[in-house]
């Protein structure tokens, strides 16, 4: 048929192309030289003895290697060997660390308690208003464990946690883990249907929430399953045991009072501990489509993530870490907090990110923490707090760089920043202005096994794959449809590797039983199945498919290209267009709504834009902003609105968005009414003058 003819023609073109002819000539030359080298070596061996025979064999092999793979391969091997060697050593150390815990069947709580015994009075977690030592963190965790043990919670039960960044956040899930209870860490930005969904999809039998989110919880409480028990933690510094107001009276138990009367020295006898491979946390991710999905984090997985970045970037146990990221995400809650729990480091957290206060905090907390250890000598201060490590996401770096110059820009002791999403366009400017010696850029998905690390500060790279021994860490960039992300297969039904600078989908081979290669997926098994591709490089094998497009350069460095599908990234969060479309359509009277991401100059990620079919202009823009605020998290709210006078459908009655994305938010591209989101949450008309201000980066989002 026509499809087969088209494929055949493409194959003929591919085979007869210049690169393939050159490859065939190289192979013919290689076979010819192999025959001549073998004959020559045999003659030398026969007439001149073993010594000259071995010398001839060595020279023949060297000559053959210069032909295939060629001199260039030796050059690439030479320049990348130091990088690959450091990564290999780190990888071996991670495997040994995880295997050691596995052999002893240890969980996160076991390692943490060992650190408590080793340095009980060392600061573990520090915030703007709290300074908790390892002893204090453990005591609060024990109180939590004893309260829930007395309430009948046991290994395998699920208790959700909705709380802002504070010391109690860490101690709460840590205490629950001592009972073997699984804790879903719920995004504090969620409201309404999204919040309700997260509680239900996690199969929570109880929910612990901070009083700051009392209104949000009470709004959905009546729609939760009857068996979900509510526990309110009062976060008032003045009176933590104060009763709640009428909103939660009779619906929630007051956790503060229960904790006050619970034992703090140890967990009550009879509690069943968690095993090494048991589930520890659920961390929510929007994935590629739909509502938030609960990704599974086992104790083993927690060890691998925290230890992986620890050894890959050369962290020290006496480093002080600064993270203003939310602790319900993997970056802050596992990578940074894991340094305290597993390695005894000090982690400084912040309730909310502040661009102007980022490096000010790094400098200020360094002094404050040092003063806390006044009993130590000056030499001890230098030993314990000489270095700091700060964490970022790409948007943070841009926000920080946009602040006015200040003395603390360089008056800090930060030797390294690590995170994901630092744009190549601002990388050099960022490290030079703030005097950063090293950047550790990483890439990975909470639920995935395709995790990589840039360990040598190569500008713009998110990681690398070895060009010498790629088999050691089986991750690959495969050819795929750049719009759908669907792998492109050859005549054998298998996937193919991309060439240098050829964009493709990033995948990681799945090896069951290997903590570094296993894919745990989501709580929802159907959602997990969608992230697995079969028959990748051989029949029967499996790989996690990331849905992200990457490109590799000649030395194996990988660079982020784009995201496939309808999900885009904004303010460090994945935004699902289908979820936003559903919520927005409800608010505008179920009108046809199309949501997509658009690029803003000099801005990381893509800003949300919603096109609403409203030819008679019935939607009230004045109140829409307020209603969206109550419905969607801030990162998911559309930055731009477009009211369509006509709508374009495909032959199967699907809404077209490609042309809308191309036109973006340019007023000159259409006659439709456009609006943009103001800082106060309301929408204002987007005029040509406003558009030009955005293009000049004078108006920022």
UniProtKB/TrEMBL annotation:
<protein>
    <recommendedName>
        <fullName>long-chain-fatty-acid--CoA ligase</fullName>
        <ecNumber>6.2.1.3</ecNumber>
    </recommendedName>
</protein>
<feature type="transmembrane region" description="Helical">
    <location>
        <begin position="51"/>
        <end position="67"/>
    </location>
</feature>
<comment type="similarity">
    <text>Belongs to the ATP-dependent AMP-binding enzyme family.</text>
</comment>
<feature type="transmembrane region" description="Helical">
    <location>
        <begin position="74"/>
        <end position="98"/>
    </location>
</feature>
<dbReference type="InterPro" id="IPR042099">
    <property type="entry name" value="ANL_N_sf"/>
</dbReference>
<keyword id="KW-1003">Cell membrane</keyword>
<feature type="domain" description="AMP-dependent synthetase/ligase">
    <location>
        <begin position="112"/>
        <end position="505"/>
    </location>
</feature>
<dbReference type="InterPro" id="IPR045851">
    <property type="entry name" value="AMP-bd_C_sf"/>
</dbReference>
<keyword id="KW-0812">Transmembrane</keyword>
<keyword id="KW-0276">Fatty acid metabolism</keyword>
<keyword id="KW-0813">Transport</keyword>
<dbReference type="GO" id="GO:0005789">
    <property type="term" value="C:endoplasmic reticulum membrane"/>
</dbReference>
<keyword id="KW-0436">Ligase</keyword>
<dbReference type="GO" id="GO:0044539">
    <property type="term" value="P:long-chain fatty acid import into cell"/>
</dbReference>
<keyword id="KW-0547">Nucleotide-binding</keyword>
<dbReference type="GO" id="GO:0005886">
    <property type="term" value="C:plasma membrane"/>
</dbReference>
<dbReference type="InterPro" id="IPR020845">
    <property type="entry name" value="AMP-binding_CS"/>
</dbReference>
<dbReference type="GO" id="GO:0004467">
    <property type="term" value="F:long-chain fatty acid-CoA ligase activity"/>
</dbReference>
<dbReference type="GO" id="GO:0005324">
    <property type="term" value="F:long-chain fatty acid transmembrane transporter activity"/>
</dbReference>
<keyword id="KW-1133">Transmembrane helix</keyword>
<keyword id="KW-0443">Lipid metabolism</keyword>
<feature type="transmembrane region" description="Helical">
    <location>
        <begin position="27"/>
        <end position="45"/>
    </location>
</feature>
<keyword id="KW-0472">Membrane</keyword>
<dbReference type="InterPro" id="IPR000873">
    <property type="entry name" value="AMP-dep_synth/lig_dom"/>
</dbReference>
<dbReference type="GO" id="GO:0000166">
    <property type="term" value="F:nucleotide binding"/>
</dbReference>
<dbReference type="Pfam" id="PF00501">
    <property type="entry name" value="AMP-binding"/>
</dbReference>
């Amino acid at each position: 048929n026509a499809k087969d003819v088209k494929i055949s023609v493409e194959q003929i073109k591919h085979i007869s192309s210049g690169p393939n002819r050159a490859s065939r000539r190289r192979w013919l030359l290689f076979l010819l030289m192999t025959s001549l080298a073998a004959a020559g070596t045999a003659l030398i061996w026969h007439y001149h003895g073993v010594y000259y025979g071995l010398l001839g064999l060595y020279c023949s092999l060297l000559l053959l290697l210069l032909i295939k793979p060629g001199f260039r391969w030796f050059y690439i091997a030479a320049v990348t060997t130091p990088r690959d060697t450091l990564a290999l050593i780190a990888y071996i150390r991670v495997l040994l660390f995880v295997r050691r815990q596995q052999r002893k069947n240890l969980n996160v709580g076991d390692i943490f308690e060992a650190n408590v015994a080793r340095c009980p009075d060392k600061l573990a977690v520090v915030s703007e208003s709290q300074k908790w030592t390892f002893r204090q963190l453990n005591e609060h965790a024990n109180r939590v464990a004893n309260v829930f043990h007395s309430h009948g919670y046991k290994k395998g039960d699920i208790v959700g946690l909705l709380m802002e960044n504070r010391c109690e956040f860490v101690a709460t899930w840590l205490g629950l883990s001592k009972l073997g209870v699984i804790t879903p860490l719920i995004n504090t930005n969620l409201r309404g249907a999204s919040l309700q969904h997260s509680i239900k999809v996690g199969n929570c039998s109880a929910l612990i929430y901070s009083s700051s989110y009392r209104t949000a919880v009470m709004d959905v409480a009546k729609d939760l399953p009857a068996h979900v028990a509510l526990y309110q933690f009062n976060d008032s510094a003045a009176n933590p045991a104060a009763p709640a107001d009428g909103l939660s009276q009779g619906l929630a138990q007051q956790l503060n009072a229960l904790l006050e009367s619970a034992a703090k020295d140890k967990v009550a006898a009879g509690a069943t501990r968690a095993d090494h491979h048991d589930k520890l946390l659920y961390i929510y991710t929007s994935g590629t489509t739909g509502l938030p999905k609960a990704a599974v984090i086992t104790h083993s997985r927690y060890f691998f993530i925290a230890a992986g970045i620890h050894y890959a970037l050369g962290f020290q146990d006496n480093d002080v870490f600064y993270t203003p990221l939310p602790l319900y995400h993997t970056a802050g809650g596992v990578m940074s907090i894991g340094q305290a729990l597993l390695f005894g480091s000090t982690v400084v957290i912040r309730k909310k990110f502040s661009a102007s206060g980022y490096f000010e905090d790094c400098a200020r907390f360094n002094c404050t923490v040092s003063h806390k250890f006044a009993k130590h000598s000056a030499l001890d201060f230098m030993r314990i707090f000489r270095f700091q490590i700060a964490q970022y996401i790409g948007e943070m770096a841009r926000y920080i760089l946009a602040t006015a110059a200040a003395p603390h820009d360089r008056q800090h002791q930060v030797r390294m920043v690590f995170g994901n999403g630092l744009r190549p366009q601002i990388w050099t400017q960022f490290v030079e202005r703030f005097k950063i010696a090293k950047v550790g850029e990483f890439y990975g998905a909470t639920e995935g096994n395709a995790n990589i690390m840039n360990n040598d500060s190569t500008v713009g790279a998110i990681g690398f794959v070895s060009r010498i021994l790629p088999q050691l860490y089986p991750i690959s960039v495969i050819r795929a449809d750049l719009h759908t992300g669907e792998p492109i297969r050859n005549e054998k039904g298998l996937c193919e590797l991309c060439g240098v600078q050829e964009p493709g989908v990033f995948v990681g081979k799945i090896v069951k039983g290997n903590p570094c290669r296993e894919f745990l997926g989501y709580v929802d098994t159907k959602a997990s199945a969608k992230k697995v591709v079969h028959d990748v490089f051989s029949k029967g094998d499996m790989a996690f498919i990331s849905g992200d497009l990457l490109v590799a350069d000649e030395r194996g460095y990988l660079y982020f290209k784009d995201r496939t599908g309808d999900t885009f990234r904004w303010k460090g969060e994945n935004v699902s267009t289908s979820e936003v479309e559903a919520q927005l359509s409800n608010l505008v009277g179920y009108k046809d709504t199309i949501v997509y991401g658009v690029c803003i100059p000099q801005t990381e990620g893509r800003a949300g834009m919603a096109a609403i079919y409203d030819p008679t202009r019935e939607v009230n823009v004045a109140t829409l902003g307020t209603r969206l605020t109550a419905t969607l998290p801030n990162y998911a709210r559309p930055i731009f609105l477009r009211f369509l006078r006509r709508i374009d459908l495909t032959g199967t009655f699907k809404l077209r968005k490609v042309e809308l994305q191309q036109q973006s938010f340019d007023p000159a591209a259409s006659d439709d009414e456009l609006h943009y989101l103001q800082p106060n949450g309301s929408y204002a008309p987007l005029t040509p003058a406003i558009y030009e201000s955005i293009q000049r980066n004078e108006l920022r989002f």
